[in-house]
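Marked as duplicate of an earlier ticket. Keeping the data here for the record.
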Amino acid sequence: MRIITYILTMLLLLACKNNDGVNDIPFETITADKTISLSSEEHAPSCRVHLKLESATSKAGHIGELINETVIKKFLDPHGEKDMKIAAEKFISTYTDNYKKTMQPLYNQDRNDASKRFWYEYHYILEATTQKGTDNTITYLTTIDYYEGGAHGINQQQILNFDSRTGLLLTLKDIFVSGYEQPLKDLLLKALLSKTGCKNIRALRTKGYLSSMDIFPTENFILGSETITFIYNPSEIAPYSMGATQLVIPYSDLDKLIKNTIDL
C-alpha cells in the first residue's frame, strides 16, 4: 500500500512539474495537391500546387485555434476561414483556376513555339514544420517554392513564432524594448561582417550585400533556446544568386534590448 501511495505521489508531482513548463500543442499534418493542364494535349504545360501544413488539433483548444487562424491568414486565406483543410483546398482551387484563366489564352497563341512552353509550367509548393523555440514559444517554419514565369523561380522561408501559453504571434515589438531598432541593426551588421569575413560596409557591398540599402531587422526570425536567427530571403540584402542569409544573435548580446516581461 505504501509503494502504491509513493508511486501515485511521484506521478502527481511529475504532472505538476510538466504543467509548469511549455504548453504541449499537438499538431497534425494537412496535405492537399492538385495539377491542372492548359490543354488535353499529351505534353501540355501544367500547374501543380502542393501544400503540406501543420495544423494545431482540437486538443489544443483556443490556443490552437489562434495559431491556426494566424497561419491561415498569412499563407492561405486572409478573409477569415478558420479550418485549415478547407482553407488549403480553397487556396489550391483559386490558384489553379486563376492559372488556367490567365495563361490559357496566352498559351493558345504560343502553343506552336516549343521554346516558350516552359514559360507556362507553373508550380507552387508550400511545406511547413513546427519546432519548440524557447520554453514558452513554438516556431512555425514554412518553405515556399514557386514558379510563375520569368527567369527563375522563387524560394523563400517564412517564419512565425507563437507564445505557446496564449497562441499569440510574437513580433519584434513584442520582444524588444522601445528604441531597439538601431542597437539591433548594429548587432546584425556586426554578425553579417563576421559571417562574410568583411571589415566594413564597403567590403560587404563589393561582395554584393546591402548594395542599395542598410541592414534592417526582419520579422522573419527564429526564436531558439539560446539565440535568435534572422533569415533574409534571396534578393532582400543580397542578390538572388547568393541565396538566403542567416544571421545568428545570442541572447547574451540582447540582454538590454529584450523586454523584462518576455520570458524567453
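See parent ticket for discussion. The beta strands are 27-37, 46-56, 122-132, 137-147, 154-163, 221-223, 227-232, 245-250.
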